[in-house]
Write a structure and sequence with these properties.
Blueprint: H1 15-21, H2 24-27, H3 31-47, H4 53-72, H5 84-96, H6 109-145, E1 150-155, E2 158-164, H7 165-190, E3 192-193, H8 209-215, E4 220-221, H9 225-230, H10 233-259, E5 267-268, H11 287-310, H12 324-347, E6 350-351, H13 353-362, H14 367-376, H15 381-398, H16 407-413, H17 421-424, H18 427-432, H19 442-457
Parallel strand pairs: 3-4
Antiparallel strand pairs: 1-2, 5-6
The structure holds arginine.
């Protein structure tokens, strides 16, 4: 069959070229936005006297019936159509006759696809925001339940200073709250309607772009028609924010994978979010966390793919830009799937406070506090640091820990040591003394919990 754009050419294309050119397999998911956009377009055309009220009514009715039939399954989207825009228009003309052909007045597929994509992403991002919130909530729940559970805090993956598990998980809440903020920022810039830019240069019809934008829920219209049809920054911004979010999820996953290894055993993931091995009966594998870590690379790839596609394009629309959708849709689907599995995985994991505490006792993570003790007794920090280091070395050699090293031994390193030192280097004291803002003490952690609560309730 000849294409709808037959005219200059026969509109008969080779089957291989058709398949290659077609985007229906991936853009049909925007059918709702395409139809909603068209209804607003018909309303604007009629309000401006470009088409009659009767035409508008016919178009609207036809479009609504298509929407209803796709939603209800009575109408299958034809996989042989070039794209979703062509499919809807063809179906409309099939249903209401020649009036259907008036819909495409004062627009082009270039501004139409730009509109559909913005509307689709706006709808999908509302879902992403909900899922992100659910994950923050799961982390918050575990953080609150373990706000006093002591674990080793690490730098260089070496035991460094004691922290609480709640404090550790709240760090991830902070990251995810920033991710939500980045999505908000990107969505604000995306909130601009491209419809009415037409192919590239605008139109000679007396259109009302503001009216159409408002009807579709946009705050403003693209101020330059060439930019309006060429801009895909919003896809890149969203994918950048998604990449950063995935990086955070990947770091969290990596920690979960470590924590549920036998070497750590800080947590056990629930059966629902682990798998067994087909050969090793003792295995409980953190596949979900590993997949989140793995899929991070895929989202980065989507971002790099579109950046690369766009980099050499002259203004305005080029068919290369059809490639935008597979990148952004894949990133979106991946992020949603990862968030969906991460929240219940966190929520249902069990935390082994005893294992965390005993790991915290083995790494001399109170050595800083030992040095601080000497400083309080009047030694300069550098000397205190050196003495503490020597004491740690002795403990290591004798397979001892600071908590139980006898006072006589301490006194051989410095006469200022006294019985009060044991209280000072008790891990609970080390945590409780870190009352600085953002620190690991209960008081500081509770302030962080309040901040996360604010985020969770604001909508
Ligand atoms: N399927 C096309 C896309 O996704 C729609 C726009 C086509 N415009 C054109 N001038 N061929 O980019």
């Amino acid at each position: 069959m000849a294409k709808m754009w037959a005219g200059l050419t026969s509109g008969i294309t080779d089957r291989v070229a058709d398949d290659f050119n077609s985007s229906i397999s991936f853009d049909s998911r925007m059918y709702r936005q395409d139809i909603t956009g068209s209804i607003a377009h018909a309303a604007m055309l009629s309000a401006q006297g470009i088409i009659s009220v009767q035409d508008k009514e016919q178009l609207t009715e036809g479009l609504l019936s298509i929407l209803e039939d796709i939603d209800g399954g009575a109408l299958q989207i034809d996989p042989l159509s070039e794209d979703i825009h062509m499919f809807v228009e063809q179906e409309l003309t099939k249903r209401i006759g020649d009036t259907g052909k008036k819909l495409h007045t004062a627009r082009s597929r270039n501004d139409q696809v730009a509109l559909d994509l913005r509307m689709y992403l706006r709808d999908e991002m509302a879902e992403v925001k909900k899922l992100l919130k659910a994950l923050v909530k799961a982390l918050y729940g575990q953080a609150k339940a373990h706000k006093s559970s002591i674990m080793p805090g690490y730098t260089h993956l070496q035991r460094a200073q004691p922290v609480t598990f709640g404090h550790h998980l709240l760090a991830y809440c902070m990251m995810l709250i920033r991710d939500a903020g980045r999505f908000e920022d990107a969505l604000k810039r995306m909130d601009v309607s491209p419809i009415g830019c037409c192919a590239l240069a605008g139109t000679t019809y007396d259109t009302d772009r503001e009216m159409e934008a408002k009807a579709l829920g946009f705050s403003s219209v693209a101020l330059n028609s060439m930019d309006g049809v060429s801009d895909r920054d919003y896809c890149l911004e969203l994918m950048s924010a998604m990449s950063i979010l995935m990086m955070h999820l990947s770091r969290l996953s990596e920690e979960l994978i470590l924590w549920c290894s036998w070497e750590f055993k800080f947590v056990t993931l629930s059966d629902g979010y682990t798998t067994g091995s087909s050969i090793m009966p003792q295995k409980k594998n953190p596949d979900m966390a590993e997949l989140i870590r793995g899929k991070t690379g895929r989202v980065y790839g989507d971002l790099m793919g579109l950046l690369t596609t766009l980099k050499g394009l002259p203004l305005a629309y080029n068919k290369d830009m059809q490639e935008d959708k597979e990148c952004i849709f894949d990133a979106l689907d991946t992020v949603k799937a990862c968030l969906q599995v991460a929240a219940p995985m966190i929520e249902t994991m069990s935390v082994h406070e005893d294992n965390m505490f005993s790991a915290a006792q083995k790494g001399f993570i109170n050595a800083t506090d030992l040095a601080d003790y000497l400083v309080k007794k009047g030694l300069p920090f550098r000397s205190a640091y050196k003495i503490s280091g020597e004491i740690v070395a002795k403990c290591m050699a004798d397979d001892q820990v600071l908590e139980t090293l006898p006072l006589e031994v301490y006194k051989t390193f410095s006469p200022v040591f006294d019985g009060d030192l044991y209280k000072e280097i008790d891990l609970r004291t080390c945590v409780e003394k870190r009352i600085s803002q953002g620190g690991t003490s209960l008081r500081s952690v509770e302030m962080q919990l309040v901040y996360v609560e604010e985020f969770l309730k604001d909508d």
